[in-house]
Amino acid sequence: MAMNAKRIAVYVLVVFALYVIITDPAKAADYVQVVFQGISDAAKAIGDFMTWVADGAKS
Fold this sequence. Notes:
Helix content is about 90%, strand content about 0%. It has two helices and no strands. The protein has helices spanning about 1-25, 25-55. Helix 1 (about 1-25) packs across helix 2. The relative contact order is 0.06.
């Protein structure tokens, strides 16, 4: 039952993404930019944390 729900959720997300891309490509591009900016910010934060740990966790 859980696999069916997961599969349905994936299909719904794919259909929604296609709908947004087809109806408003500019807004879809903005969404992609926001997602990649979030990933970039998260990677930078992890890098800063690892640098802090490598420096001995000093303030």
